[in-house]
Amino acid sequence: MLGSLIKFFLTGFWMLIKVIASLIWFFGLWLPAAYALFGLILYWVFGFNPLKLELEGQLYISGFIACCLCSIVISIRNLIVKPAKSILYGYKKPVWKKSGPKQAPDAAKPQTDELNSFQVRPSIYYSTLEENTLIHEYPDRFEIYRIADNKARLERVEYKNEED
Question: Which residue ranges make up each domain of the chain?
Answer without folding.
Answer: 2-96, 106-159
